[in-house]
Amino acid sequence: MDIVESLFDIQVQDPPEEDFSSIDLTWTKFGTAEHHDEVALIPYARVDSFIIGECSNVECPTRFHIERGRKRSRGSLKEYKDDEYLEYRL
Question: Which PANTHER family does this one have (predicted)?
Answer without folding.
Answer: OS09G0309100 PROTEIN, ZINC ION BINDING PROTEIN
